[in-house]
């Protein structure tokens, strides 16, 4: 499912990094660096998380709806503003933060897939200056993807977005939500079906929703059961298989490394080289020389 990303009501500063043109679905991640000042936003269809990246604590006055909060935000602190809640902030020094905007429709769809009971009344709770290692870790993973020169794998971004949605539903909604968990892994027939699909479409940008739809289950349950079956997440398995395909082509063909990268689903020579080195400890070129 893909839903539209709102534009802010007022935004006098442009982000220094943005996922807006990278094809990420249901989520927008942007890094901002502002001098002392103030600003206001309101998003009709998105929940917003602002994670502080400032090297020094910043004094912030914040207003969400009719709630006002003043405090020092240090690196790792964040706030949550639900969709349709007006937000105003004033800060006293240079500020740097990561804004994550996730569509309310996507949160609702994940809730319908995973919650025991009625999910229609699901509401996110406004939060000021809180700490959550899980949110901070996800924020840094999104930021790492923004810092890459190549486009990230859609399966990887989909997986991070799904994990974030599930965590928000579990921890930051008006009533505590119990999520159904299925145990035991995927049946062998379904597992083979997924593995064959990945092998056949290895060169394409496979989405998490593609794999889940193949088995007629939710993204949340698919990820959980796949990891139980294989021991690693779907995006990790996909990267491993792409590297294995690249090894075969490096050994058996004279294709250029750039061509091999594209044939294996990587965006560029550098993208393949980075992932190849992480898994094998050497570059594709060194591997090809060693295979001769």
Keywords:
292 residues, alpha+beta, Arc Repressor Mutant, subunit A, 4-stranded antiparallel beta sheet, 10 strands, 42% helix
Description:
The strands form two sheets. A six-stranded antiparallel beta sheet has the order 1-2-9-4-7-10. Strands 3-8-5-6 form a four-stranded antiparallel beta sheet, with no helix packed on it. It contains ten helices and ten strands. About 40% of the residues lie in helices and about 20% in strands. The protein folds into three domains: about 15-170, Jelly Rolls (Sandwich); about 190-230; about 240-290, Homeodomain-like (Arc Repressor Mutant, subunit A), CATH 1.10.10. Residues about 5-10 have low confidence and may be disordered. It is an alpha+beta fold. The protein has helices at about 105-115, 135-145, 155-170, 190-200, 210-215, 220-230, 235-250, 255-265, 270-280, 285-290, and strands spanning about 15-20, 25-35, 35-40, 45-50, 60-65, 65-75, 80, 85-90, 95-105, 125-130. The relative contact order is 0.11.
Count the domains: 3
Give the CATH topology of the largest domain. Jelly Rolls
CATH architecture of the largest domain: Sandwich
Return Rg in Å.
Answer: 21 Å
Instruction: Give me the side-by-side strand order of the main sheet.
Output: 1-2-9-4-7-10
Q: Can you write the helix and strand succession as a string?
A: EEEEEEEEEHEHHHHHHHHH
**Number of continuous helical runs:** 10
> Got a strand count?
10
Report the oligomer: single chain
Termini distance? 46 Å
Largest sheet: 6 strands, antiparallel
The share of residues in helices is: 40-55%
Please, what is the CATH homologous superfamily of the largest domain?
Jelly Rolls
Please state roughly what percent of the residues sit in beta strands, choosing from under 5%, 5-15%, 15-25%, 25-35%, 35-45% or over 45%.
15-25%
Give the class from helix and strand content and strand pairing.
Answer: alpha+beta
> Can you tell me the overall shape?
globular
Output mean pLDDT: 87
What top-tier CATH class of the largest domain fits best?
Answer: Mainly Beta
Unreliable stretches covering 5 or more consecutive residues: 7-11
